[in-house]
Amino acid sequence: MKKLEGRVAVITGGSSGIGLATARRFVEEGARVVITGRREKALQETAASIQGDVTAVRGDVSRLEDLDRLYAIVKEKHGHMDILFANAGAGTIAPLAAATEAHFDQTFDVNVKGLFFTVQKALPLFKDGGSIILTSSVANVLGVPGFSAYAASKAAVRNFARAWTLELKDRNIRVNAMSPGPIDTPALATTTGLTPEQAEQAAAQFASQVPMGRRGKAEEIAAAVTFLAPDESSYITGVDLAVDGGMAQV
Ligand code: NAD
User: Which residues of the chain fall short of a pLDDT of 70?
Assistant: First the structure.
């Protein structure tokens, strides 16, 4: 029996990295998936590369009108949804002394405001309970030099899971955060503005702090999300599931 047979799942940031690996895994498990992200071409290529029921909808989670359009399409195509993986995130490096207002605003616009409204605007589509998984980060409990705004935004995500668990319990909607450690995805190279060599160096530096001694794979995160999404985890809500090779424990 497939874990997500017939379930309707929406994944933000679904054309790359963790979101893409999760879209693939959800489809393997029988879900009907809607992915959203900002890059139309990458989204369409992703949807075409996955054998199954995948719909790609271009959209920026920090733009409320894009979220309205996304959920209008979900409603039209599926009538409801069962699972939301609110995963899109932004994380540029910016030490305190050098960070600009634009950097700060962009980080919070996507990771905090964008995620808040991604969830709020999905609520009318949850008809019969459901599961919401929020991508936070191991940075939500660590001091990470150069990433303080990012870490603070991910701590907010962790706290959203706590409050929304209580707000949504009567609708039988579970809300969990999921916090990756350093994962091999395009994120470091594409979002930090580092050269490929600097990005590799930064990734190696993060990985050296992981007790398991390596970076994680996007598929290992997808496996954790595929545990939190279905009823298999029916008594788990409000947690922050670290998928970080033990990094948060150091
Ligand atoms: P990625 O760059 O491979 O993918 C990020 C995805 O999010 C892309 O599809 C991108 O288009 C999308 N996205 C970014 N901003 C968006 C916006 N405003 N609206 C819609 N889509 C947007 O990165 P990833 O590593 O897969 O990151 C996914 C999530 O995991 C992010 O929230 C990130 O903060 C978090 N995370 C990543 C790591 C890591 O080491 N890779 C560690 C901890 C947390």
Answer: 188-193
